[in-house]
Specification:
single chain, alpha+beta, NADH Oxidase, 2 domains, 8 helices
Length: 285
């Protein structure tokens, strides 16, 4: 993980972040915008080396000719600024994008700003044109960024309800040792408890929480797997559930560093267990 730029502990920011869909109708104060842009130019290097770049865009400015309106199909209200990013084609581009973009979301959280991951409910083409994407790049996700409104719209409350946004799977359902049916409790996780809890609290598309963590008995390694929801999250050039894996890796890595735990994400597929229905992603060692 790259140089820490947060003013608060990563574990605190992970708990503080929540999805905001209704914003005060005003652009970011210039000082905040400058601080956010300064962070976006130097994000952490992603685990698999994909070329990820970030940007801060204005939703629409009627006084500027040629500025395209950035739409979110009515899901977001009031936002005047958006975080977004692009990634070049690579075998692990979605995981790397999720890793870097979640770091940017936590940076905005540290500045007191609201955010909301958007994977399918934004006009990808318009965002790409505003960001100036190259032919080999895709815009996997975006997020409004700004001050949360004092009230939530009915649509926002309904979206949170149908996505089950306020609920997380139990720790032992997401973390195992030895076999998929051998759950690992928070107490049994030992020194990896806090990084694993940060994964449990991570946002995911439609709150599917598709990650599973397998711990070595001696806690020397932790393997990350994707358990897919069949037919879900596959869009042209974008795999939302692989992005979710990158978000999980970001949370784990940030909190492991905060706890003083040595290690990094690596591809150790040859030594990881193989389970039906589980796609290997990476190993922390």
């Amino acid at each position: 993980m790259a140089r820490q730029v947060f003013g608060r502990a990563a574990s605190e920011l992970i708990r503080a972040r929540y999805s905001v869909r209704t914003y005060q109708e005003q652009p970011l104060e210039e000082g905040l915008a400058q601080r956010l842009r300064a962070g976006l130019v130097a994000p952490p290097a992603p685990p698999f080396g994909s070329p990820v770049r970030l940007g801060l865009l204005q939703a629409f400015d009627p006084t500027r000719k040629g500025v395209e309106k950035l739409g979110t199909y009515g899901v977001i209200r009031g936002a005047r600024d958006y975080l977004t990013g692009a990634v070049g084609a690579s075998a692990r581009s979605m995981e790397d994008f999720g890793y870097v973009f979640e770091w940017a979301v936590l940076l905005a959280t540290d500045l007191g700003l609201g955010t909301c991951w958007l994977g399918g409910t934004f006009q990808r083409g318009a965002f790409g044109r505003a960001l100036g994407t190259r032919p080999d790049e895709v815009v996997p996700a975006a997020s409004p960024v700004g001050l949360a409104a004092d009230h939530k719209r009915f649509l926002e409350r309904a979206l949170r309800f149908f996505a089950n946004s306020d609920n997380r799977k139990p720790f032992a359902e997401l973390c195992v040792e030895g076999a998929p049916d051998d759950p690992c409790t928070e107490l049994e996780a030992g020194p990896l408890r806090e990084p694993l809890e940060a994964v449990r609290l991570a946002p995911s598309a439609s709150n599917k929480q598709p990650w599973r963590m397998w711990l070595e008995r001696d806690r020397s390694r932790c393997h990350l797997f994707l358990v897919r929801n069949p037919g879900y999250g596959l869009l042209p050039g974008v795999d939302l559930q692989r992005i979710d894996m990158g978000i999980a890796m970001c949370h784990f890595g940030l909190v492991a560093a905060e706890q003083g735990l040595a290690g990094r994400w690596q591809d150790q597929a040859g030594s990881a267990p193989g389970w039906s229905g589980h796609e290997y992603v990476a190993t922390w060692a």
